[in-house]
Amino acid sequence: xxxxxxxxxxxxxxxxxxxxxxxxxxxxxxxxxxxxxxxxxxxxxxxxxxxxxxxxxxxxxxxxxxxxxxxxxxxxxxxxxxxxxxxxxxxxxxxxxxxxxxxxxxxxxxxxxxxxxxxxxxxxxxxxxxxxxxxxxxxxxxxxxxxxxxxxxxxxxxxxxxxxxxxxxxxxxxxxxxxxxxxxxxxxxxxxxxxxxxxxxxxxxxxxxxxxxxxxxxxxxxxxxxxxxxxxxxxxxxxxxxxxxxxxxxxxxxxxxxxxxxxxxxxxxxxxxxxxxxxxxxxxxxxxxxxxxxxxxxxxxxxxxxxxxxxxxxxxxxxxxxxxxxxxxxxxxxxxxxxxxxxxxxxxxxxxxxxxxxxxxxxxxxxxxxxxxxxxxxxxxxxxxxxxxxxxxxxxxxxxxxxxxxxxxxxxxxxxxxxxxxxxxxxxxxxxxxxxxxxxxxxxxxxxxxxxxxxxxxxxxxxxxxxxxxxxxxxxxxxxxxx
Amino acid sequence: xxxxxxxxxxxxxxxxxxxxxxxxxxxxxxxxxxxxxxxxxxxxxxxxxxxxxxxxxxxxxxxxxxxxxxxxxxxxxxxxxxxxxxxxxxxxxxxxxxxxxxxxxxxxxxxxxxxxxxxxxxxxxxxxxxxxxxxxxxxxxxxxxxxxxxxxxxxxxxxxxxxxxxxxxxxxxxxxxxxxxxxxxxxxxxxxxxxxxxxxxxxxxxxxxxxxxxxxxxxxxxxxxxxxxxxxxxxxxxxxxxxxxxxxxxxxxxxxxxxxxxxxxxxxxxxxxxxxxxxxxxxxxxxxxxxxxxxxxxxxxxxxxxxxxxxxxxxxxxxxxxxxxxxxxxxxxxxxxxxxxxxxxxxxxxxxxxxxxxxxxxxxxxxxxxxxxxxxxxxxxxxxxxxxxxxxxxxxxxxxxxxxxxxxxxxxxxxxxxxxxxxxxxx
Lengths: 483, 427
Fold this sequence. Notes:
The complex is a heterodimer. Chain A is of the alpha+beta class. In chain A, about 30% of the residues lie in helices and about 25% in strands.
């Protein structure tokens, strides 16, 4: 029987941010994740934007946590070694008659405490972003907007939590939660866990777990967002994140560089029923391309290298729900945009609630920093050669599109909470994330995974579960006599 | 210390090998091949089917056998090569940054560079095929590597999208290895592959080819469980109501090849939008003097024999460039005369794109592809307004590369010639 003080359900960016904050205290914490890795749900398929904080309704949790999260991001990215950059963002006003809307957004931003906001005129926009649509008559400029690697951010939070004693259980899906005399009993696919307190950070499933323990029901709607990712050759088409004025279903289709230098366009916003519905659709992808071209001209659509869809966890009340909704049960629900931006602040807020409730005591030996996989591409020639002499695997390029070395892939597998699948390696190193989309490197990465994990290549998966790459060996269906 | 070579060849596949051998035959001792894989031969090593070398050797070889004929020559002539070596960057001044595990990262100064990096396969993402993103979707070349080099079967029930040659070859290979290939769907109303491959790889195995069809949905969250095919109209868009479901665990994609010109682009080589390869002159030289290109990095070929032929020309031209290092002596009034090659009326591009008559070899091959299937038509070549060639063809198809020959004499005789046009005519 696994007994913990606090069990967190979900190893997305919220769950891992909470785990990292709780790992400051002298308590036993675990994270239960149904997938084989961290960052497998909403956290992996979003705009990868750190919002400035002008969108949310003043006074809402979204407004408060977005601003706080945005402010925390610099230090956190240094402490935990993940890529983040303040590239600034523009909200375009494409029609004179929408000016009041832009002004309102500006005022809302001021009210929310966003610093540096400015309304730009046509010429200023052109100067900043020559590829923005000629229709743009004005724009709200927010210098504090940023871009981040959501994979590395989540992995960094998780690894740091792990280093500070948090236990992670993967492939562990929670089926049932019941209240015992003193604590919760959590039934999972990997056995029973007991915890004094549960934190539910389960994304689109947050309502499911909440409703297991509470009579006041929650309802989360998966709101699908589809995206197209373009080749790095298109990555400088814009240098800031370009939004249009928000509509009923969120912030509309954005055009942004990613922290790694690609161009990302999306998302759509479609409410669906299926909580597993991460399929892209023809209509959705067409809409992304069409909408993006309304705000930014000459997007090189021939350079699309992949498309994907993610689900936002939209709660009917349109705000984050964070707090102790039942005795010993903390909800972290409705974490849609700006959830990624808010994650560090969500972690802080949940930890604060629990600190007060249980009078938690800080550890003396808390490690506040974490080192990621060494990015050898930033080294000078001499440094790089010294590195390769020590470990020749850093001299072998495995992913030719993203120039990822064997050494980095080995690091990703051997690291704390190491990669177990092609996607796990991809999220940690970018191997397979480039223009050939793993065409050349996947057989090599499979070989390295098999060797490092000591398992046959037949057992290597794309993303755990039933996602095996290989179905057998040549002619194995013919039997001994070759028939 | 920076190592120096006369000619550095980027890529040790069929193009790089032939270029290196030719440069040596033409008198250049100081040559180096840089190859990123663990052996020479490039993609030929995984092409274990036969049909290679009919033009070059007059016999049918497998891919590895064809490569071996060139690798032997490289060894016999002691042409230097480095394996497992990735070129990271090439500067305009021809300083090459490369890396391998033994030497680390190092610099090489070349006098001439031959680009021979080959091509890569277009991925699912480039097509925006809607649906889930499970395991079981492979480009045909990746599947070919898994099956032919590693011995693994990537799937048992297969649908193939795209009828490029690798897709056709893999339909047969997967069948021979025990998988069931249910259908090959092709977006266009014609196949992008060679006719002989359709006959030998599909017809002979009873695998249906559905022209004007595409994949409109991929099902299965973890592993492919099925795909939906639909017929497409003349606009290339799916026709509602024509959807058909295919249960399968694997989708192979053979939907086009893209020359790998990231290094070229970064060094400032001008690229052609149609081929995605460098714009070259009669010497297969790019806009950067002393930088040559050949093989699939220049334009995607149908047969490796033509790659070898083209690469041999590039090797000779690079050797000539090293030997002369300065413009050929030509009468002053004729200097800088360039003739533009124009492709129109169904001809998509030509390689080369410009000719400097004084630099031409005695006979030169102009290679091109057509944009659709044409029956009973003519390939014509015009010198300005004058038709100089009119060749009857019963069929022309995008899957097959076409060529015509031009002679130096013919062009020098047309002294005021400005433009050569290559086009398709109905009569």
